[in-house]
Specification:
The complex is a heterodimer of chains A (382) and B (186).
Chain A: H1 7-15, E1 24-28, E2 40-46, E3 49-56, H2 64-67, H3 73-80, H4 88-103, H5 109-137, H6 142-162, E4 171-172, E5 175-176, H7 184-207, H8 210-216, H9 224-230, H10 235-239, H11 246-249, H12 270-293, E6 313-321, E7 324-332, E8 340-344, H13 346-352, H14 354-358, H15 366-372, H16 377-381
Antiparallel strand pairs in A: 1-2, 2-3, 4-5, 6-7, 7-8
Chain B: H1 9-20, E1 28-30, E2 33-37, H2 43-52, E3 60-68, E4 84-92, E5 97-105, E6 111-113, H3 122-133, E7 136-138, H4 164-167, H5 178-182
Parallel strand pairs in B: 2-5, 6-7
Antiparallel strand pairs in B: 1-2, 3-4, 4-5
The chains are: A alpha+beta (382), B alpha/beta (186).
Chain lengths: 382, 186
């Protein structure tokens, strides 16, 4: 009869090297619901601990930086809109600003204010999407319904002005495609006030939830030093106590005219990143309210030459995208097409820090950490 | 951390000249951003100084990219054509300053020191540049492909790499502009 071993016996055997253990490679993705696209994670696990995690990207690489060299500026507006598909309007802005800088186009005030209204509405759309998905990744499906109820009202307003629900294509160098239709202002105000009024519900549902806190507090800590060295930006950087926000540091458009706060976390864990994201929603809603209140009358498109042809020059223009700093390095040789357009997307830098953050964490926390990095694959791969 | 006065772009140019001297070439201010040139051998030294010098503190790594100027200005202006250039863009949150550091590289055999030990975010950007421009970064911990399949031939970022659907393109037969058409084009 075999003798039954006690736990102490097993522990002694392991200590003496009697029980061989080895690391195992676990492949996550490329198709995994927590990755918002096609993203693969090669995880080397040692028991319950992630010894190494190497993201594998490039499944959605569409070569935009090469494609734009063969297209004129009108076509590029619609291409870049498809990088981060949750914030199409925000993607179009820095390109328009780069052209306005090189061509010295003046943007009329109404266009600037309307841009702010729509940029911030797009930011709310994006953040609500991540509010929904982060909840779903941690096993709570209700946030999805809450977020999509609010999103729909904002989508309706955006749709009435642009005709699109994801890729708006509404930005033009020098202003906007056309003025907003009648009813847009009322619908926009109604939808953002609704968001402000319902933020308490969101707080109760996730931020104040004990189970949610246990899954996220002190999990996946990102330090300030890592933020700087990797160039992490947006809500993820601010969750680690970095106060950088392009809208405050180098105000573009008319952002210096509005009263808004930049929510900042302090511990850099999953919870703080999510807390920053949720509180940015209400700040954006406040900006929309103020921008609509002060909306000036006038044209929405400045004096723009019929053919957009940037003079020779090089400029880097950045803006605060919902996910972080989006910048375009535009090098023009005087043609109708850019000579080179380097697209600096926030998600690429943000995700490159993942191997460091994931090292040494538990496998069970992996999805929470991935979800709290709020990335869009189209934004990583371009 | 002591509270420091913000340094203006012009003051930063002076500080760059005094700390780095000949290691950086002409320093200019373009559209409010500093613009400096350095050689591939000095890149690591320049990067470390930019990050750690108290009056500069370019701590935030924005991006690393490259530009192939071999067709700059089009076929009509051969005097503007240049070579391959690496661009490192850094940001200083303390002083709200930007800098572009340009490194001229040899187009036939582009090599450069890796800066991924100084700015760890450069790791992936250098892998991207290896794919797109074929630049070899010496001292990079894992210089493998990031976007392209391993068996991909060529480096799409280079101007010599033509998009297949543009290589055999015929000129548009009609008038290019509405005004041209109205004036008797087609």
């Amino acid at each position: 009869m075999t003798q039954i071993r006690t736990p102490e016996d097993v522990a002694r055997e392991v200590a003496e090297g009697g029980l061989a253990t080895q690391q195992m490679i676990l492949n996550v993705g490329p198709q995994h619901p927590a990755t918002h696209g096609v993203f693969r994670l090669l995880a080397t696990i040692d028991g319950e601990i992630l010894a190494e995690a190497e993201p594998v990207i490039g499944y959605m690489h569409r070569g935009y930086e090469k494609l734009v060299e063969a297209r004129d500026y009108r076509q590029i507006t619609n291409l870049v809109s498809r990088m981060d598909w949750l914030s199409g309007f925000n993607n179009e802005l820095p390109l328009a600003m780069a052209l306005e800088t090189l061509m010295e186009i003046e943007v009329p005030p109404r266009a600037q204010w309307l841009r702010v209204v729509m940029l911030e509405m797009n930011r709310i759309l994006n953040h609500l999407m991540f509010f929904a998905s982060f909840g779903a990744e941690l096993g709570a499906i209700t946030p999805t319904f809450y977020a999509f109820r609010e999103r729909e009202d904002i989508q309706l307003a955006m749709e009435s002005a642009t005709g699109g629900r994801m890729h708006f294509g509404f930005m033009r160098p020098g202003g906007l495609k056309e003025d907003v239709p009648r009813g847009f202002i009322a619908q926009a105000l109604k939808s953002v006030r609704q968001v402000i009024a319902r933020l308490d519900q969101y707080e109760d549902l996730l931020v104040g939830n004990e189970i949610f806190k246990q899954r996220t507090v002190d999990v996946g800590v990102l330090s300030r030093e890592q933020v700087m060295s990797y160039g992490v930006s947006g809500p993820i950087a601010r969750g680690s106590g970095v106060s950088d926000d392009v809208r405050k540091d180098e105000p573009y458009l008319v952002y210096d005219r509005f009263d808004f706060n930049v929510p900042i976390g302090h511990s850099g864990d999953c919870f703080d990143r999510f807390w920053v994201l949720v509180h940015e929603v209400v700040e954006s809603a406040r900006i929309v309210e103020q921008a609509i209140e002060g909306l000036p009358a006038g044209p929405v498109l400045g004096k723009v030459p019929r053919v957009i042809q940037a003079p020779e020059g090089e400029v880097y223009v950045r803006a605060e995208n919902p996910l972080g700093e989006l910048g375009y390095y535009l090098a023009s040789d005087g043609d109708r097409r850019p000579y080179r357009l380097k697209i600096r997307t926030p998600s690429f830098n943000n995700v490159s820090v993942l191997p460091e953050v994931l090292r040494g964490t538990f496998v069970a926390d992996m999805i929470a950490i991935l979800g709290s990095f709020f990335f869009v694959l189209g934004d990583i791969d371009r | 951390m002591s509270v420091q006065e913000r340094v203006s772009a012009e003051e930063a140019v002076e500080r760059l000249r005094s700390t780095l001297g000949d290691d950086v070439g002409d320093v200019e201010v373009r559209f409010g951003h500093l613009d400096a040139t350095c050689s591939a051998e000095n890149l690591r030294h320049v990067m470390t100084t930019l990050r750690d010098e108290p009056g500069l503190r370019f701590e935030f790594f924005t991006f690393l990219s490259a530009i192939d100027r071999s067709e700059f200005g089009g076929p009509d202006k051969p005097d503007k054509h240049g070579g391959l250039e690496l661009i490192v863009h850094l940001y200083s949150p303390a002083h709200v300053l930007h800098i572009n550091v340009r490194v001229p590289l040899d187009l036939a055999d582009p090599r450069c020191e890796s800066i991924s030990a100084i700015y760890r975010g450069a790791n992936w950007h250098e892998r991207e540049m290896r794919d797109m421009f074929g630049i070899q970064f010496e001292g990079h911990p894992n210089l493998t492909g990031i976007y392209l399949p391993e068996d991909f031939e060529g480096h799409p970022g280079l101007r010599s790499f033509k998009l297949p659907n543009r290589a055999f393109i015929k000129p548009w037969p009609g008038a290019k502009d509405p005004e041209e058409a109205a004036a008797g084009g087609r």
